[in-house]
Amino acid sequence: MEFNRNVQPPDIVLPHFEPKGVETAYQLFMKELNKGKDSKIFVYYDPDIDGLMAGLLVEQYLERLGLKNNNYGYYLNRNREHGFKLTDDQLKRLEGYTIVAVDFSVEKKDFDRILKAGINLIVIDHHEIDTKSYTKSKVDYVFSKCSSKGTYGVILNNQYATEEKKFRFLSGAGMVYYFLKYVEKHTNVPMYVEAPAMVGISLLSDIREIESNEARRFLRYAFALESDWMKFLYWIVSGESKSAQRFSPFGVPCINRDFIDFTFSPVINSLLRADRGYEALNILRGNQTVIDFMRRGDKILGFRNGQKKMISFIMDELDNAENTPGNLTCKRDNLMLCCLPSDFQPIPDLNITNYIGVACSRIKDEDKTGVILVVDKETNLVVRGSLRGGKDGVDYLDIFQRNGVPSAGHKNAFGILKCDVTKIDFDKIDKDIAIAEEEYSKTNINTRSVLEVSHLDFFLKSAIAKKICKYNELSRDNHRIYIKVLGDFSDKDVSRVKSEKVSDKFIKYYIDGVPVSCFDPSLDITESLIVIGTENNRYTKCTLRAGFEYDAEVDRKVISEKLSSL
Ligand SMILES: [Mn+2]
Question: Which of 282, 292, 361, 480 lies at a 20 to 30 A Cα distance from 130?
Fold first, then answer.
């Protein structure tokens, strides 16, 4: 499997962006590369899909620039841990290198430690950054020099207060893309055609905001690109060799949102959670043959099953502890809190701390804020904790930090660091969340709309559903459109529903108290229309993989007009 072979890029113009500090980072990068056979580059990956894509973008570009294997090193943390983890001894061996650290924050103490070890450092990140801890020599980005060693460090980050707001959505891979775009402009060495698609995938896997046209262009690029690598990802992760042949059932690739959210991300993440990060990286590199995969396919999918079991063990803990007074594990008004003992190990070889984030996401699916802490019973210290906020857009990180809980990450998805669990006032936090969510709901109107129609002709219904599904595919929860179809359905429609297995729902919505699910992986989404039937109301199922032209401006008005003209 090779990148960039015999493939035209989709005709999509990507937005232009130059991150603050990019010229400095470019200078450092080229200074190293211009050393020729003495160049030494070390890529420090972050162990999640965005991090792997980000590091891989750098790695692939170095390959384009002709950097040899013996001038290149890389590393990723074990157990999906974020942050710079190399010890001083390990740093000693990297003296003279330039480290490119992607998709994670490098704390001030590590930043200084790296420079003092005689290493140049380029950090490319998109996490909230505590700039106060850095002494900045430039006003708008972190840049500093270690005079005794003559080394430099720079941090590119789209969350700097001075950065353009419309690029806040970028993932780590997105930031790397724009760094390399700058290098590309100066060196005339092009990135692989897959690069923007990798950004598109990472926007979904990292749950970035994808409402803007800027974000959507990356997604559309990813959905439209039919390169060998994209096909390879499709069949190796889906585990069906047959699918390779029917890669384009509607003339478009199957690497769409549904595939990324419900097949690709879960499979790769389950490998990372099982501490098989390098294996995951090798899959993305395309370092797998069909034979390899056939031999190991079961194992890869086995990790996903292990993950499912781990999640249900955690959810059982939460359910069982509900009515125990004094137990930290409980359901509050807004917060679902689960404390697990650090020796909790329901499945041998699988580390519980690697599964708490994904279990939190399940709680989030119920519109609650999930917090899961792994706690040492003897000392009451949090070994590792995770949060997923119930509402995208609310700053939960700020709430926890204000309440003295050491935490780091994104506003609505972050890790909780070592602290005494008995000192955390969860009742206070629960109240603060209620206030923040209330504030948020005042300023943010839910644009989800339900359009009522009756007696739709099957083909018209299908066409409109496709448009709507395409719209929903490129939007997050609060911008969805549904059709509510009144009146009777033909038997054909109903039998279509009955023949589908609706299990393992990822996301549940309620409209007028009626459950509607989207992006359900168990449904055959190659069928353009799926109707969910209830006694009185019926909703079209808003998930499919359609070959329709996507119109970015399609909105409820357009659809209303279409419906009223019926
Ligand atoms: Mn990321």
Answer: 361
